[in-house]
């Protein structure tokens, strides 16, 4: 878990309008999920069998199917983009949106609205495409914003390595402890790599897309904002009139 309240307070200072892209992506993903057959809240899908069929058709229409994408089928060419806004379960959605909420706003502040939007979509599409190339013959559908959000995590690690986040680790009995962002995110990256080595070709989490997205985000931020442009988080200070406290 992340200390998201503290992170959110320190994100909007440099953006007069706030992190509108981050919040906009979260709103769109939530809206798409709520009206989809996956949420279980949208009426009109019928009985259980009809609902299962509707879910399967929904994923096949909007998700990435590696074999179809690499075959160049017109219907599949836009799926790396549409798949970024489709999620497979409530847990999938909430986990992704929490990470985007915490790490996205500060990254958007540094990159700017348009730059962050293009960065987010680019990382997500490239991560999904890389997964498709590595699983060229697969008919398994891939959905979710994890590749794009992993790119945000990689950029955050490069831009704000000393920012401190509160995390809960199972092997530490879920005690809330504060660590530098570099320690938390590198630990996350290592876990994704270990999981990717153990994953088989069956249904599950596309860890490779996570790794590719993270690497793309870090490399982009390093190249675009390297050297003196790297940001160091400001210490908390008393708020003045018209100024938000970090």
UniProtKB/TrEMBL annotation:
Coiled coil: none annotated. GO terms for molecular function: peptidase activity. Its EC number is 3.4.21.-. This is Rhomboid family intramembrane serine protease. It is a multi-pass membrane protein. It is found in: Membrane. InterPro entries: Peptidase_S54_rhomboid_dom, Rhomboid-like_sf. It comes from Streptomyces chengmaiensis. Its main location: membrane.
